[in-house]
Write a structure and sequence with these properties.
Blueprint (H helix, E strand, L loop, with lengths): L1 E5 L2 E7 L15 E11 L23 E6 L5 E2 L2 H12 L4 E2 L6 E2 L2 H12 L4 E2 L6 E2 L2 H12 L4 E2 L6 E2 L2 H12 L4 E2 L6 E2 L2 H12 L4 E2 L6 E2 L2 H12 L4 E2 L6 E2 L2 H12 L4 E2 L6 E2 L2 H12 L5
Function: May be involved in transcriptional regulation.
Subcellular location: Nucleus
Main location: nucleus
């Protein structure tokens, strides 16, 4: 590992280790050049992958822990090897892919855990709604739906989330970061997985079918949401009035009834709405024509 000083950045040429998975026919080696910000930091969270805090003075370098910072999204890691694995989520290269649904992972261990979804191995059950999970960490995150706990908040708008990953995805709304582009139509996405699902619009591929009615979907998440029509499952409950919903986003929209939040405003007259669909309908009163 060689570092070259350039202003306040260090550029590292990283020879990746040989990747070998069960579904790979031959060994694959590649060299990446990453721009790594190495800064002494005071960690604000115990977990890896949190945002870096402000750099301390140069005199404190010897006493502070060094952090490897991703130059694309700003996430920090205490070990360079963990940053290297994280970087693949941006490039889409060197990932371990599920042969059943195509979802990709940085680590073979995460892929093996994911495969349990398809084999229906879900040993961890929620005591509140009975939903099952393949690992206990996912169950703990799911429990926040019932408790209403949202420990991760956006510093730009204050919106809160149950998972740090969802917060990081949300931040791209403010930064406008969309580094994954479709070669067919040019549409850009903030996540590589969303680009893969989008590509099926052009290919017509709908690999996920409902066993109850045969309807097919481009993404497995779309299928899982659809299944609730048949099961009647409504696992997302409003803590204010108890009303239940089959989708978390429907619950989030419903909560605005209690909070009075109206995030969508008309540029013509300033009137505000709790739903974007209501705003679109209102705009026709000014133009006689809805948005494109």
């Amino acid at each position: 590992l060689t570092y070259v000083r350039k202003e306040k950045q260090f550029v590292a040429l990283i020879e990746t280790s040989t990747l070998q998975g069960d579904d790979m026919s031959e060994e694959e080696t590649r060299t990446e050049q990453l721009s790594l910000h190495i800064c002494p930091v005071v960690e604000s969270k115990d977990q890896e992958g949190s945002s870096c805090s402000e750099s301390e003075s140069q005199s404190d370098i010897g006493t502070k822990k060094k952090s490897y910072k991703c130059d694309i999204c700003g996430r920090c890691y205490t070990q360079q090897c963990k940053l290297k694995k994280h970087y693949r989520t941006h490039t889409g290269e060197g990932l371990f892919s599920c042969q059943t649904c195509g979802k990709s992972f940085c680590r073979i261990n995460d892929l093996n855990v994911h495969k349990k979804i398809h084999t229906d191995q879900r040993p961890f059950s929620c005591k509140s709604c009975g939903k099952n999970f393949s690992r206990i960490s996912n169950l703990n995150i799911h429990n926040r739906i019932h408790t209403g706990e949202r420990p991760f908040s956006c510093e730009f708008c204050g919106k809160r989330f149950t998972r740090n990953k969802n917060l990081n995805d949300h931040k791209r709304i403010h930064t406008g970061e969309r580094q994954f582009s479709c070669k067919s139509c040019g549409k850009s996405f903030s996540r590589f997985s969303k680009l893969n699902v989008h590509k099926r619009i052009h290919t017509g591929e709908r690999p996920f079918s409902c066993e109850s009615c045969g309807k097919s979907f481009r993404g497995i998440s779309h299928l899982n949401i659809h299944k609730r029509i048949h099961t009647g499952e409504k696992s997302f409950s409003c803590e204010s009035c108890g009303k239940s919903f089959s989708r978390n986003r429907d619950l989030n929209v419903h909560r605005r009834i209690h909070t009075g939040e109206r995030p969508f405003s008309c540029k013509a007259c300033g009137k505000r709405f709790s739903r974007v669909g209501n705003l679109y309908r209102h705009m026709k009163t000014h133009t006689g024509q809805g948005p494109l």
